[in-house]
Write a structure and sequence with these properties.
Blueprint (H helix, E strand, L loop, with lengths): L1 E7 L4 H6 L14 H4 L8 E2 L2 E2 H14 L21 E3 L9 E7 L4 E13 L8 H12 L5 E8 L2 E2 L7 E3 L4 E3 L4 E12 L5 E11 L11 E10 L9
Parallel strand pairs: 4-6, 5-13
Antiparallel strand pairs: 1-6, 2-3, 6-11, 7-8, 7-12, 9-11, 10-11, 12-13
Length: 237
């Protein structure tokens, strides 16, 4: 039995307009050295694990919480399950636009989905065949092969070429919270530890896939105000 889940995001104000889910919308490719200085490339390794492995860990984190973090309306559960060198942020389930505030300790990497999905096979088996794993990987790729638009801002600066940050599971992984084997695919941000203070991360993206009536036109809209090292300003943008 296969299950699919996809979680995505779009943005606010000008970014919202740029990422409205319309056919033919283009993927943003504006360059920005300032934004680029915080970004880790898709082939990065952090604490001995690849970018792809970290996305698998993100899915295990997201689906193991008492309240799934992509349902968080305002950041009130941002600190749940955060006990490693990488601090996970979440998108939404596509049914609402989120504006969240979150306090993050200094020295933490940030892993953020731009738009992503996971494909699951239930129940999990310890010896998933290579053919079965490849099937999961192909299914996870369907909507991500049809990214219509993506805009990401870090402290108001546009992230260059979001398509360069597509990350797929190299191997299938166990999704313990669902007793499933899984493959993940999507577009992500992996940020170096940000300096102490207030930072704003705004994300907008949508799919345009005719092959999936359920999620093929998924739209993401979310924004984080991240207070690194302690809350600095309670006033949202």
């Amino acid at each position: 039995m296969n299950r699919r889940a996809r979680f995505s995001g779009a943005t606010f104000a000008a970014v919202m307009a740029a990422t409205s889910a319309s056919a033919g919308a283009r993927v943003e490719r504006a360059a920005s050295p300032a934004a680029n200085s915080w970004l880790l490339p898709a082939d990065t390794v952090v604490e001995g694990a690849s970018f792809g492995e970290w996305t698998g860990r993100w899915w295990n984190w997201a689906l193991s919480q008492p309240i799934e973090p992509f349902l968080d309306p305002d950041g009130r559960i941002c600190d749940r399950g955060q006990d490693g060198p990488v601090w996970y942020l979440a998108g939404t389930d596509g049914s609402f636009d989120a504006h969240r505030e979150c306090v993050v300790p200094e020295g933490k990497y940030l892993l953020i989905p731009i738009i992503n999905m996971v494909q699951m096979r239930v129940p999990a088996t310890a010896h998933l065949s290579s053919a079965a794993c490849e099937g999961l990987r192909r299914s996870a790729a369907v909507n991500n092969d049809n990214l219509a638009s993506a805009v990401v801002l870090v402290d108001g600066v546009k992230v260059p070429d979001v398509t360069a940050f597509r990350v797929r599971s190299g191997r299938c992984f166990e999704l313990a919270a669902r007793n499933a084997n899984a493959a993940a695919d999507g577009y992500w941000l992996f940020l170096r530890p940000l300096p102490r203070g207030r930072h704003v991360i705004t994300v907008g993206a949508n799919y345009d896939s005719g092959r999936d009536r359920g999620y093929g036109t998924m739209v993401q809209n979310f924004e984080y105000v991240v207070h690194v090292g302690g809350r600095t300003n309670l006033t949202s943008l």
